[in-house]
């Protein structure tokens, strides 16, 4: 969605026309705010999904955010009422143009059209849209629109741009998914004919002050339930202390940063988000200095340098409450916090008292701790969230994402006929117990496809698209190593469901994943051992043998040993590469 947003704003800027634009996360409140403020062109980018109601009719919902990290599934009727509110008696429609960039967005496009919007771009019913197609169409559509073309001309330009893009799968079909509503409407209007030349003005609110490390969302895998619970607690008003507990290497820092960046982008804490890595802070005074440094760094990054950066009224047994209580709603993250190993009962009580005093004297402050041990603060409402080992499926996805080389189907045996036969037999036995009728299937194998682009697959042929969707849903609900998809129909009377061994699911059963014991940090270290060393790469089987030879049950010990192995191998690798480069 960020890529689509950037593409749209790039097109608007390049037009050289004067306009005001803003971007925000979609809640019903924000949608109503921009409509009330006089927005004339609305672009909604997100997710839509369809479902069958109790009477068996196909319905659609659009996924808004609920403000606490969850989904607000908005019905078409509710969206229509939200758009139309306050527009009774107005001569102008509530919007000049609405663009619903979401799968199954057709019903929502129809809702905008029913609300009186004269021009609506949407995606057809029961259609899923590729991200690349959505970005390209939006960029070309808005560029043409702002350059003075009519809505119909801009729509045609966007469709042709998608239909002729070589990096989109089946580009012609993707282009056909877009529709312009109302179908019988006059779309020859040039909306921006009188727009004066000038610059695009960005009117979105600035980000709050922060010093957060970078976060890479595409490499953050799993932990969705814990992520949502952490965000919901941070956005709510009941919990002052959020405590994330887990063994070393379970991904506490990654989850902390994921939650922190989520609330940062949505402006939840106007006073800022401060990040402190407390590893090695053995005293309250040392932690205080780290907090002061975090405040100074956040102020410099937001242009607030020169504000008070030194704590006042704090002793060596107190945290810098005076520095934080005037910032308003603020989130302080103390990562890798742990009680010093040599702490006595008295010193432990001082730590607890210092943290409790900080929360008491800075009433708008929230604290997010991550560490290995629990902490009780009397009288403070808190959320304690424990992190267990990651499931093997998530570890396999992370392993595949971080691997320095491609994990191939051939090395996992995903296209071995015997392996596929075993999974098919197991699946049919389970479905046979439920009385599920399955029509005849065939197994397809292209012996010439040596690149793995066409996996060995089982194919079911059914009567129509509804039967194919029902069969795919039933097959996908089974716990199997097979992945199922519904390809586009080859002819009007031919509808298929394909199933083939999933690389990720098979990888999750590999001994190398079991040896990682559900530790994200151990996974990140282990994938580095697959990189070519002295000209040859290590196979998955070799890596599994190496991990099993370590014979370490403790995840922390496994992480330390993997770190030492990686360091030894990395020591030689740069010298080899340097010699190769000099030879060239």
UniProtKB/TrEMBL annotation:
Residues 238-394 form the AAA+ ATPase domain. It comes from the Eukaryota. Coiled coil: none annotated. SUPFAM superfamilies: P-loop containing nucleoside triphosphate hydrolases. It holds the Pfam family CHAT. Transmembrane segments: none annotated. InterPro entries: AAA+_ATPase, CHAT_dom, P-loop_NTPase. This is AAA+ ATPase domain-containing protein.
């Amino acid at each position: 969605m960020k890529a689509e947003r950037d593409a749209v704003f790039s097109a608007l800027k390049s037009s050289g026309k004067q306009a005001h634009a803003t971007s925000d996360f979609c809640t019903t409140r924000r949608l109503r705010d921009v409509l009330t403020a006089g927005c004339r062109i609305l672009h909604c980018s997100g997710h839509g999904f369809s479902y069958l109601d109790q009477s068996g009719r196909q319905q659609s919902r659009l996924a808004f955010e609920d403000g606490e990290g969850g989904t607000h599934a908005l019905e078409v009727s509710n969206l229509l009422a939200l758009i139309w509110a306050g527009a009774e008696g107005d001569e102008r429609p509530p919007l000049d143009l609405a663009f619903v960039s979401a799968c199954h967005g057709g019903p929502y496009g129809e809702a905008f059209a029913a609300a009186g919007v004269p021009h609506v771009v949407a995606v057809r019913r029961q259609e899923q849209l590729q991200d690349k197609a959505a970005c390209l169409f939006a960029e070309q559509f808005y560029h043409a629109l702002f350059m003075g073309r009519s809505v119909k001309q801009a729509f045609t330009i966007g469709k042709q741009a998608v239909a002729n893009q070589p990096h989109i799968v089946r580009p012609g079909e993707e282009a056909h998914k877009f529709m312009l509503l109302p179908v019988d409407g006059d779309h020859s209007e040039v909306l921006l004919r009188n727009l004066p030349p000038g610059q695009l003005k960005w009117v979105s609110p600035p980000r709050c002050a922060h010093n957060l490390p970078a976060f890479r969302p595409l490499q953050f895998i799993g932990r969705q339930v814990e992520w949502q619970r952490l965000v919901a607690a941070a956005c709510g008003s009941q919990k002052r202390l959020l405590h994330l507990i887990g063994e070393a290497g379970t991904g506490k820092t990654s989850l902390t940063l994921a939650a922190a960046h989520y609330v940062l982008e949505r402006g939840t804490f106007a006073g800022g988000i401060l990040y402190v890595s407390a590893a090695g802070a053995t005293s309250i005074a040392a932690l205080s200095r780290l907090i002061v440094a975090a405040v100074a760094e956040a102020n410099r990054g937001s242009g607030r340098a020169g504000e008070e950066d030194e704590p006042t009224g704090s002793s060596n047994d107190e945290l810098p409450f005076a520095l934080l209580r005037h910032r308003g709603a603020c989130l302080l993250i103390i990562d890798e916090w742990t009680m010093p190993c040599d702490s006595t009962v008295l010193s432990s009580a001082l730590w607890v008292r210092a943290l409790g005093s900080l929360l008491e004297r800075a009433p708008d402050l929230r604290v997010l701790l991550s560490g290995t041990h629990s902490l009780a603060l009397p009288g403070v409402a808190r959320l304690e969230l424990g992190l267990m080992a990651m499931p093997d499926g998530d570890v396999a996805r992370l392993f595949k994402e971080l691997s320095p080389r491609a994990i191939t189907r051939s090395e996992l045996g995903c296209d071995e006929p015997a392996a596929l036969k075993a999974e098919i037999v197991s699946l049919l036995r389970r479905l046979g117990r439920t009385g599920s009728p399955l029509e005849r299937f065939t197994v397809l194998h292209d012996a010439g496809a040596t690149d793995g682009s066409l996996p060995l697959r089982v194919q079911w042929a059914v009567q129509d698209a509804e039967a194919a969707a029902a069969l795919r849903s039933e097959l996908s609900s089974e716990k199997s190593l097979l992945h199922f998809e519904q390809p586009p129909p080859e002819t009007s009377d031919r509808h298929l469901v394909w199933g083939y061994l999933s690389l990720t699911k098979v990888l999750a059963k590999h001994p190398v994943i079991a040896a990682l014991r559900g530790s994200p940090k151990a996974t990140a270290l282990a994938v580095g051992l697959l990189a070519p060393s002295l000209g040859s790469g290590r196979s998955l089987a070799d890596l599994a043998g190496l991990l099993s030879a370590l014979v370490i049950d403790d995840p922390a010990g496994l992480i330390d040993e993997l770190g030492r192995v990686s360091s030894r191998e990395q020591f030689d690798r740069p010298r080899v590469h340097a010699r190769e480069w000099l030879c060239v």
